[in-house]
Amino acid sequence: MKLMSTTRFELAPFEPADLLGFTPQPAQAEDYQWIDTVNWTQYFKTGFAVTALIDGEPVCVGGINQILPRIGDGWLLISDRVSNREMLYLFKAFKSILQSELQTAYDRVQMTVDADFAPAIRMARMLGMEQEGAMKSYPKEGKTSYLYARTS
Domains in the chain and their CATH numbers? Predict the structure, then answer.
């Protein structure tokens, strides 16, 4: 897969150090707290991840982890520094990656989205994913997440 690049925007292979100094958007700040940058390399041995850079600074990390043969779990962690225009670049890049992976490596890619986070729900739908259900008390008590999936 060819990684995308423009003058300001570039996709590069993920490195755990990309998360150092990374400040996630407020809706993902709680999710970011469980991240241990030292162990992320081990985490990605069953999938892949990329880092989106704008002007050389990491603004998003995302990827797909294989959870079963030909079934992947997609994820994105987006910086609080990303503008709406830059979000469009991220969307196009990750949509292209998802389409490529569904043609080559996966029959299904799924992701969970916080039910209270409308921008993430919109992005899942724009990626061609369909909501399959609600998961109560996930990822923790009192929260609800939606399961979205796209198949090849």
Answer: 9-151 (3.40.630.30)
